[in-house]
Amino acid sequence: MWDEKYSAQHYVYGKEPNAFLAAHAVELPPGEVLCLAEGEGRNAVYLAGQGFNVTALDLSPVGLDKAQRLAAEKGVEIDTICADLAEFKLGSARWDAIVSIFGHLPPDVRRQVYANIPGALKPGGVLLLEAYTPEQMGRGTGGPRSVDLLVTAAMLRDELPGLEFLHLEEREREVVEGAGHTGLASVVQLIARKP
Ligand SMILES: C[S@@+](CC[C@H](N)C(=O)[O-])C[C@H]1O[C@@H](n2cnc3c(N)ncnc32)[C@H](O)[C@@H]1O
């Protein structure tokens, strides 16, 4: 499904970074960043341009090829990993920051990935995440069509044990991030730090 979507000539979510990430990238500690479910690479490429060492992970090789093309276009380097988050090992105290932008996963996979994020962050490492909430259902402005893939602030608090929540908010905002995400949307935004 994702390969087919990304086989379009244009960048489905655009070439510019997610607005929440761009507004808060200064809060990420310098170093190694893992971008989960990063698709065509707009966020990874942006962070590389800010001086981070970035690895973009996604299960779509077509998306990751476009991510490397975007990196070359912007004159930066990123690493890519083509993997399914259901199986990928995030590592132990490996990352200074983990970024997840609209990385909607089936509940069992999501719980497992989220449970492993605190251990994968270095002490002082930061998770930055934006996702659609169940309020997004039926809006027609982007996001998954299945409510099971959507998350609330309460779910994030429950499923990310051991992190200090610096910012956790459900809100409405205008999302204009490629043809795939355009219009008023219900999102949850999170910045959390490993003590
Ligand atoms: C809505 S797109 C978001 C892409 C990117 N984060 C962005 O903001 O432009 C969701 C991405 O999740 C990826 N994805 C879905 N399930 C995945 C899984 N199990 N493992 C890795 N990536 C996955 C898809 O390939 C797709 O690129």
Strand content: 25-35%
The low-pLDDT segments are: none
Chain-averaged pLDDT: 97
Q: What is the tally of helical segments?
A: 6
Bound molecules: S-adenosylmethionine
Give a quick summary of the entry.
The protein contains 6 helices and 7 strands; from the N terminus they run H-H-E-H-E-H-E-E-H-E-H-E-E. With 195 residues, it is of the alpha/beta class. The mean pLDDT is 97.
Walkthrough of the structure:
The protein has 195 residues and is of the alpha/beta class. The chain is 28% helix and 30% strand. The protein is built from six helices and seven strands; from the N terminus they run ααβαβαββαβαββ. The chain has helices spanning 2-6, 19-24, 42-49, 61-74, 107-120, 153-159; strands at residues 32-36, 53-58, 79-82, 95-101, 121-132, 164-176, 182-193. The chain has a seven-stranded mixed beta sheet. The longest helix is centred in the middle third of the chain and has 14 residues, at 61-74. The termini are far apart. The mean pLDDT is 97. Bound molecules: S-adenosylmethionine.
Key descriptive features of the protein:
195 residues; alpha/beta; seven-stranded mixed β-sheet; 6 helices; globular
Helices and strands in order:
Layout: H1 2-6, H2 19-24, E1 32-36, H3 42-49, E2 53-58, H4 61-74, E3 79-82, E4 95-101, H5 107-120, E5 121-132, H6 153-159, E6 164-176, E7 182-193
Parallel strand pairs: 1-2, 1-4, 2-3, 4-5
Antiparallel strand pairs: 5-7, 6-7
Helix pairs in contact: 3-4
